[in-house]
Amino acid sequence: MLPQTNSQPREYEMALAHTPVLLEEVVDLLKAEPGEAAFDGTFGAGGHASAIAEKLGPDGLLIACDRDPAVGEYYLEFARHAPCRTELIHGNFAETLAGMAEATLDIVYLDLGVSSMQLDRRERGFSYAYDAPLDMRMDPTLPVTAEGLVNTLSVDELTDIFRRYGEERYAKNIARRIVAQRTRGALETTGDLVEVIKSAIPTPARFGSGNPARRVFQALRIVVNDELESLARGLEQAYRVLDPGGRLAVISFHSLEDRMVKEFFKRQAAGCICPPGLPVCVCGHEPTMRVLTPKPVTPRAREVEMNPRSKSAKLRVAVKL
C-alpha cells in the first residue's frame, strides 16, 4: 500500500496514455458526492479514477486496486495531483474487497478485461497483433501462463476452454492442431499460436469479422487470470461492503462477463422468489438492489470512432437498497 496524499489543486488534469471507456456515463450514473468513499477495483492507468476523484473532493477517499504491479507508475502521477485522499492496494479486487471488514464504501466500480496498457506492452503477451512471449498474466507472479496451458493440456481440456470461455466455433479443430504442433516443438510466442489457429479453421473464417485468434486468446486469458471466478466473488463482496445507497458499476467486454453481471443484478433486484403457482408469497424475499440500467449502456458512435477498443463495452449500474 502506498502512502496517502492530500494534494488539492484547484484544477486537476492528467495526461494518460489509456483512454477510459464510457467515462461520461460512469460519472453520470455513479453520481459521486463530496466526502464519499470510492473503490476502483481495476485502476489501470487511472482514467476513471481521475474523474471520480474530482467529485469526491478533499474529504473523500478513493481506494485504487489492481493486480498488475505496472500500474504503480500511473498511480503515483494520479496521487500527486488527486483532489481527494487516495491509496493503492496491489491485488485481486475480489480478495481485496473480501478483506474489508466493515461496510464503509459508497461506490465500487470495475472496468473488466485487459487494459490498453497491457495490450500495448508486447512482453505481456496479451495481443495477437504482434509476436511476443505467450504469457497473458495480469499479475506476473501468477503460476500459470498461456504458454503453459497450450503446451500441456489435452485436446479435450483445450477444447473445453476454447468453447466455454471463448465461445469458439472451431474449438476442437484448433485444440487438435495445437497438440499436433507440440510434437514438432513447443508453442512459445503469440505468433506461434496465431499461425496454428489460422491453419486449423476453414479459409472463409480467416477473413470474417475480427481476428480469427480473438476468441482463443480471450479464453486463455480468462483461465490464466481466473477472471470469471474473480468477478463472481467480487460482485458478492462489492455488495457486502457497500453502504445503503451505495452504487456498483461494472464495465464488461464480452458476453460471459456481461451475463454474469446482468444475472447478479437481476437476483439482487428480485422481489418474491416463490415457485410459480403459489397463491400467496411465503418467501418474504425483498429486493436488495435497484438496477439503474435496465439495458446496458454502450459507447456512442463518436467514442467508438475515437477509441475502437471501446466497441464491445457494456456498462451496468445498480444501487444498494
Count the E strands: 7
Q: Span from first to last CA?
A: 31 Å
Q: Uncertain segments of ≥5 residues (pLDDT<50)?
A: 1-17
Shape: globular
| CATH C-level name of the largest domain | Alpha Beta
Main sheet strand line-up: 3-2-1-4-5-7-6
Q: Top keywords for this entry?
A:
Rossmann fold, single chain, 321 residues, globular
Would you give an account of this structure?
The protein has 321 residues and is an alpha/beta fold. It folds into 2 domains: 23-117 and 227-320, Vaccinia Virus protein VP39 (Rossmann fold, 3-Layer(aba) Sandwich); 123-225, Putative methyltransferase TM0872, insert domain (DNA polymerase, domain 1), CATH 1.10.150. The chain has 14 helices and 7 strands. It has helices at 23-30, 47-56, 72-81, 93-98, 116-119, 146-152, 155-166, 171-182, 190-200, 203-206, 214-225, 227-241, 255-269, 301-306; strands at 37-40, 61-66, 85-90, 105-111, 242-252, 289-291, 314-320. Strands 3-2-1-4-5-7-6 form a 7-stranded mixed beta sheet, sandwiched between helices. Strand 2 (61-66), helix 3 (72-81) and strand 3 (85-90) form a beta-alpha-beta unit. Helix 7 (155-166) crosses helix 8 (171-182), helix 7 (155-166) packs across helix 11 (214-225) and helix 8 (171-182) packs across helix 9. The chain starts with 22 loop residues before the first helix and ends with a strand. 44% of the residues are buried. Mean pLDDT is 91; it is low at 1-17.
